[in-house]
Amino acid sequence: MASLGFHLLLLLLGTSAVLTSKTPKSKVVKCAVCRSLMTELHSSISQVDPRKKIDVGSYRIDADGKQKLSSVKYAGSELHMMELLESVCESMKDYAQARHKETGRLEAIKLVVNGGMNPRFSEYEMVQDPDLNKGLEFHCNTLVEEYEDELVAHFRENAESDVENLQETFCYEVSNVCTGIKDEL
Questions:
Q1: CB atoms < 10 A from the CB of 90, how many?
Q2: Which of 30, 18, 14 is nearest to 180 (CA)?
Q3: Beta-carbon-side half-sphere exposure of residue 104 (alpha carbons within 13 Å)
Q4: Tens of pLDDT, residues 49-68
């Protein structure tokens, strides 16, 4: 008889979980991290001298004994992106989960900007994270591993885009990480 009560309790709990079908917190956090990843990559690319060039091409030598090389901008090049993707997620240690006071949107915000506290800090309510925001770096690493080729292609094709456009196109359209997110916790 006790077993029947236990199964009934499990059934009720399962039903209530289905009825309150909120987006899993990890998916909301992953979306926030995706947007912050776009911001970090955009910022890193924009800090490179636009005149810096690298030679790319084939190592093959043609019939005349010459190599076919061309010079391309380093900022946002495949080489530059691969270098950035190796270390960009370490920057997530400087981020925290916060909810925007006006929009209610969960974001991963940078705590320190240009050596001082983030000037937009007062616009947010901090979200307590029992993992001390280690999940932000984890989600970042997961995104980079899953979408490495897409990230490189996205920044190559959208090199001149602003950060909001990069976030929208990559996080919602390319990776679908943010599709269906209502920023709820």
A1: 12
A2: 30
A3: 5
A4: 888 888 887 777 777 877 77
